């Protein structure tokens, strides 16, 4: 008897990626685990809103950034260094999102004196 491989149907491949309203227990459990892993953001004072990196959530927007080979090696070195010395396992995307959040927070707090403005103007 020949073995046939069962492939997913088109509906399974192109279903919405949000939390499943219906489905088997495995899908509901996965969605519950995903919702449980999102840490609540602490409330900041109303006067100064604090922007935090998004962390491990589904990202709906995409941005492509081109880097040199040396910049990519530096980024990978930083990622591995964080893992080795701090025990923080982080992917490159999350590392970049945290760096962007830090740069934007510094720009908002310090304006013209921010590190971002200094690097972009060559001062």
Automatic annotation (TrEMBL):
Entry superkingdom:
Bacteria
Region annotated Disordered sits at 1-32
Kindly provide the name given to this protein in its UniProt entry. Cobyrinic acid a,c-diamide synthase
């Amino acid at each position: 008897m020949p073995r046939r491989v069962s492939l997913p149907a088109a509906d399974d491949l192109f279903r919405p990626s949000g939390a499943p309203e219906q489905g088997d227990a495995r899908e509901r459990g996965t969605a519950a685990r995903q919702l449980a892993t999102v840490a609540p953001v602490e409330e900041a004072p109303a006067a100064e809103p604090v922007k935090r990196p998004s962390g491990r959530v589904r990202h709906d927007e995409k941005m492509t950034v081109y880097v040199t080979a040396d910049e990519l090696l530096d980024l990978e070195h930083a990622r591995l260094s964080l893992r080795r010395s701090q025990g923080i396992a982080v992917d490159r995307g999350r590392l970049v999102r945290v760096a962007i959040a830090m740069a934007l927070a510094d720009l908002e707090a310090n304006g013209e004196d921010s590190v971002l403005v200094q690097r972009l103007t060559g001062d």
